[in-house]
Amino acid sequence: MSKVLMKGNEAVGAAAIKAGCRFFFGYPITPQNEIPEYMSRELPKVGGVFVQAESEIAAINMVYGAAGCGARVMTSSSSPGIALKQEGISYIAGAELPCLIVNMMRGGPGLGGIQPSQTDYFQATRGGGNGDYRLLVLAPANIQEMVDLIIEGFDLADEYRNPVMILGDGMIGQMMEPVEFKERKKRDLPEKDWITTGTKGKRKPNIINSLYLNPEELEDHNIWLQEKYKKMKEKEVRVESYNVEDSDVVISAYGTTARIARTAISKLEKEGYKVGLIRPISLFPYPFEEFNKIKDDCKGVLTVEMNTGQMLDDVRIALNGRIPSYFYGRTGGMVPTPEAIANKVREILGGEK
Amino acid sequence: MAIVFEKTKGLTDVQTHYCPGCTHGIIHRIVAEAMEELGVLEKAIGVAPVGCAVLAYNYFNCDMHEAAHGRAPAVATGIKRVLPDNFVFAYQGDGDLASIGTAEIVHAAHRGERISSIFVNNAIYGMTGGQMAPTTLVGQKATTAPYGRDEALCGKPIRMSEMLATIDGAKFVERVSVNSPANVRKAKKAILECFKIQIEGKGFGIVEVLSTCPTNWGYTPVEALRWLENNMIPYYPLGNFKRPEEGK
């Protein structure tokens, strides 16, 4: 299939439909409105259902109901709206329901702003709702990758019976790039024998639930969830690396920030600096081991984010004190420039300030 | 020997956790009987609330979801939109439906979701130990209204049926009580009619059932039934607020 020029948010919708998603429950919030708009336009054409819910809370609970019936279902929002969805996300994780959630992050806290940011990293990777749970969190750096991750994300959700979050930002949602919708590789997915479709008098009732009043049972349930997350850590780590082994400084950045970092690296290479990049694609599970490839006498790892230092915690866990850790971030909707990132690298290497 | 009575197939054999004298058991039974009599049990998907009926998913003998507090109508919406030919009902208490879940119930009705809502109003938060509900009567004592509900501070109790009856998408709205055998029969009749509204694809239906909470009201079961009759029914009048006009 040939490439088409698409806006990020619309590509989200197109990818979801391509992946077989037929149910969308959402609520308007900038900068992701093109996703529900696209779905309201396109889903009816393929026999799907779009519902504009009364709130983000209602939308995620509709996702819970639909996922419990075995549907391929998604919702999307942006930071304050994703905060509202946390109740439902926790229940979905607890009840082990597959679904896809897209967060086109904007500046915070509170109502914040509508410009791009990465300030929901903690919320996405630590489990923003109550309880000890994790989402599979995937952070695309361009629209093609976002399309591919969404299509794969629905399969991952089904495979692990776990919510998958696509963590983008206002920039990737709003920009346009050429994309290609490749044929999906068929995965062997487990049969959904746990869904509620009516007993038809042929089986015992199925129950979609996250309540375990008996503490022994709830502990067992949590141990099971942790085993599932361990399997994700073994099998689902995704990372892109560039010149990690022999660089004097390694930048770590994800999403659109990683693209800006890549521009800074090209600039620095022309000046003779050796700078690498670790770009985590899966934020949970995090590619901790990739950082072990950095040589011991590397001068520093520079984490660059559109926040005040959130993924920085994971980088420090990965480095475990072996290499100095530095941070450069812009926040509030401000986007780091390649020159500012390059300057920070020069500074680490004792160059100009 | 001829069988003259059988327990409904709509309930499991699990022993319920309800307090002695609580009328949830009666309401469960008539909901289950209605599903069985209408032949929808095998395609029924129910949604349990948070509150006293939180474990209803163990008692109804059909596929069930356990929803977050107040969100049962949203969960039921998700279910019904995926499986429009199944029978979908939500079972909620007054804290769940009339306080934390007001947006969800109002908008499910407003969209005309083809679901059936059973709203159990006992004028108190039972499961959490007797706190004031939006439906607690003026002057009624609760653990968070130790001097009785003060209208000046808390307003008057909310009448959900009257409010929901004003919404176009709500096609059937009736308030019933289960404080006497005659009222139990009327309650079952209303639930059957409400369920038929969904089966016939006409829209949203709700039956509000006045219910007792002897434990948290501090009465014996018999006194509680009398208290409901003397105090709740005068404020929450029984009767049908809305049904489709003939032929529609």
* Largest sheet composition of chain A: 7 strands, mixed
Number of helical segments with 4 or more residues of chain B: 10
| Name of the CATH class of chain B | Alpha Beta
User: How many separate domains of chain B?
Assistant: 1
Q: How much helix, percentage-wise, in residues of chain A?
A: 25-40%
Give the ordered list of helices and strands of chain B: HEHEHEHHEHHEHEHHE
Known CATH architecture of chain B: 3-Layer(aba) Sandwich
> What is the annotated CATH architecture of the largest domain in chain A?
3-Layer(aba) Sandwich
CATH H-level superfamily title of the largest domain in chain A: Thiamin diphosphate (ThDP)-binding fold, Pyr/PP domains
- Please state the overall shape of chain B, judged from the principal axes of the Cα atoms: globular
Would you tell me which CATH topology of the largest domain in chain A applies? Rossmann fold
Number of domains of chain A: 2
> Which spans of chain A have pLDDT < 50 for at least 5 consecutive residues?
none
Q: What is the helical fraction of chain B, as a range of percent?
A: 25-40%
- The whole-number mean of residue pLDDT values of chain B reads 97
Identify the most extensive interface between protein chains.
A-B, 39 and 38 residues
| Helix-strand sequence of chain A | EHEHEHEHEHEHEHEEHEEHEEEHEH
How many β strands of chain B by DSSP?
Answer: 7
CATH C-level of the largest domain in chain A: Alpha Beta
Coarse shape of chain A:
globular
Description:
The complex is a heterodimer of chains A (353) and B (248). The radius of gyration of chain A is 21 Å and the shape is globular. Chain A has helices at 8-18, 34-42, 56-68, 79-94, 121-126, 143-160, 170-174, 215-235, 256-270, 311-319, 338-348; strands spanning 4-7, 23-26, 49-52, 73-77, 99-105, 136-138, 163-169, 176-179, 207-208, 239-242, 249-252, 275-280, 282-284, 300-305, 325-329. Chain A is built from 11 helices and 15 strands. In chain A, 38% of the residues lie in helices and 19% in strands. Chain B is α/β, with parallel strands linked by helices and 248 residues long. Chain B contains 10 helices and 7 strands. Chain B has helices at residues 24-38, 56-59, 72-82, 94-100, 102-110, 151-154, 160-164, 181-199, 214-217, 221-235; strands at 44-48, 63-66, 87-93, 116-121, 170-177, 204-210, 239-242. Chain B has a 7-stranded mixed β-sheet with strand order 2-1-3-4-6-5-7, with helices on both faces. In chain B, strand 1, helix 2 (56-59) and strand 2 (63-66) form a beta-alpha-beta unit. In chain B, helix 1 (24-38) packs across helix 8 (181-199). Chain B is globular, with a radius of gyration of 17 Å. Chain A binds chain B through residues 23, 25, 49, 51, 53-55, 57-59, 61-71, 73, 87-88, 91, 95, 196-201, 205-211, and chain B through 12, 41-45, 47, 54-55, 57-58, 60-68, 71, 74-83, 86-87, 103-104, 106-107, 111. Strand 9 of chain A pairs parallel with strand 2 of chain B.
